[in-house]
Amino acid sequence: MDIDLLIHYVTNETSAEEKLRVEDWSKQDINSQKELDNLQLIWNLSYTAVPAHPSSEAAQSLLRFKEKAAAQKTLISVPIKQSYSLQDWIKVAAVLVGIPLMIWFFTVQIRTKDSNELTASTTAKTDTTLLADGSIVILNKNSILKYPESFAEHTRTVHLDKGEAFFQVSHDNKKPFFVLANGIRIKVVGTAFNVKVKDGQTEVIVESGKVSVNKNHEQLVLTPAESILIHDGDLHLRKEKHTDLLYNYYRSKLFIANGTPLWKLAAILEEAYEVHISFQTADIKNLPMSTTFKDESLEDILTVIARTFNLKFSKNGSKIVFKIAD
């Protein structure tokens, strides 16, 4: 897919036909969707972090990087000029440096400073934090992340005290990256993965690379499309295959189910819309759903589920119950 068309898509500058073309392409496979998600992330960061007229020092850095890339026969379509649009910076970040090195272009936004430890926290909205090494952390709602202003010489360590976060870690073989969450130690070098701490459970889902999960001197290595769910009282670790992309909803804004049981889809909808969903029978809650919801209201999503399985649902405030249709 042409990078210019993707950039126009994330900046809402496509025609209806072009928009449909990009969305059809992104649904072809998981790698296409990841590429589009990553570009959307670059745009979200640049929209607030990149100045409309970068400093001459930034321009010189960009020029040096362009010369280096040219020496490596890398095609760059953005010319060096006196002023830059946000789209130019997105193109450079996407084509030249990629997400791990976006720190070259984006300013680290410090939330709460206490000595060398910073805290990023969210309540009603998701938020993105750029770490000192260029790693990116996307926090879901009601989450708390603690991280240093600058990392130690030999390791990089952050603490997920509460909630859920997606980590896209900058690669550094000499400086492993650790996430400490609910007594679990997660070790990576450069990869992308999701960590969720809720109700005495810790879940790790790997999107790319390898992740080592350690608890009570037991260790498992997870690879892409693998996950682990650890309860506080678990004595042993056990990994599983991960077949859906529901965990990705808070950064992709998509609910993607692939043969997913209704109870699992309902659990994500509960988080996203702050409701409680229950089922009249166990048979209903285990019905497999395969679909993608994008920009639909909760009411529309519930209606599609009901029609798909010949069900009906009732609402009482924030409580929703699915029942067999008469």
Can you walk through the features of this model?
Helix 1 packs across helix 5 (86-97). The chain is globular, with a radius of gyration of 21 Å. With 326 residues, the chain is an alpha+beta fold. It has three domains: 3-101, no CATH class; 112-241, Jelly Rolls; 253-324, 3-Layer(bab) Sandwich (Phage tail protein beta-alpha-beta fold), CATH 3.55.50. The chain contains nine helices and 19 strands. The chain has helices at residues 3-10, 16-26, 30-49, 56-71, 86-97, 249-252, 262-273, 282-285, 298-308, and strands at residues 112-114, 117-121, 127-130, 136-139, 144-148, 156-168, 177-181, 184-188, 192-198, 201-208, 211-215, 218-222, 226-231, 239-241, 254-261, 276-279, 288-294, 311-316, 319-324. The strands form three sheets. Strands 1, 2, 3, 4, 5, 6, 7, 8, 9, 10, 11, 12, 13 and 14 form a 14-stranded mixed sheet that branches. It has a three-stranded mixed sheet with strand order 16-19-18.
